[in-house]
Write a structure and sequence with these properties.
The protein has two domains: about 140 residues, Rossmann fold, CATH 3.40.50.10950; about 150 residues, Isopropylmalate Dehydrogenase. It has eleven helices and eleven strands. An eleven-stranded mixed β-sheet has the order 3-2-1-4-11-10-5-6-9-7-8, sandwiched between helices. Strand 10 and strand 11 form a beta hairpin. Helix 2 crosses helix 11 and helix 4 packs parallel to helix 5. About 50% of the residues are buried.
Length: about 300
Amino acid sequence: MSVEFATFDDMLTSVQGLPAMPIAVIDADERHVLEGACEAAAAGYIEPILIGDEKSIRNILETITGTRQFRIIHAPQEEAMAEKGVELLEKGEVKALMKGHIHTDEFLHPILLHHLQGKKRISHVYLADLKKYPKLLYITDAAINISPDLATKRHIVQNAVDIACLLGVAEPKVAALSAVEVVNPSIPSTIDAACLAKMADRGQIVGAIVDGPLAFDNAISAESAKVKGIHSPVSGDVDILMVPELVSGNILGKDLEYLAGAQLAGFVVGTKVPIILTSRSDPPRARLISCAVATLASHRMEYKL
């Protein structure tokens, strides 16, 4: 049985000994991207194929201590880089894709074009390790679906639940966030949140406990919920924060990273293969952890088949 991870260090320990996953790094000619890929390769998590401007990649690699030789595919244009990564996937030469310095829309376009998504809408999840929270926290969607409607939000929640279960959370607790914890017709996100909670009750979202609307404070803090007189099965023990739309999710994730010291991993869910998607400004460790998450997910996906 898979165990739930309290920290990224726990997760990194569990990945030790698994076969290195072959992965295409799209637009690799940036120092943070290459440092993260090199660290993940040195740790044995991945076997990267670097795609981008070959001369620039080699020049940066020469300045990184302890690097070894990697396969490099020259593709100076963003569109060609992403297409080459998908081609490697279709040939079976890699099992995952990793976003480098490329813009997200250029990165995702060929993935959608070649139908690498599953039956559901794809979405994005931040996985956060916070010193002040007792377990890993999933935040969705902060990078792909801009203003999702209720049907899309159902897919977003189910995608996050599926990956959380795959990574060891037995029955994820989901908080559908808004600005307040009561249904207010003037705030559409409160209506969506209440609908998502009822959809989970009716089996339209499976494998999780969903409650909402909840404000951030009474989702994270049982004491806050108690003070406000809120009786919720997820308050203070939430696994997944479902945000109303992309802007608030993006702000929340980066606030936690830059002001609360959170370590973040970022990935696309609802796809047939692991897709690593971090911010272009994320440090190498975020990429290292994301590679470890992707390797673990890939291993467990194969085991389930």
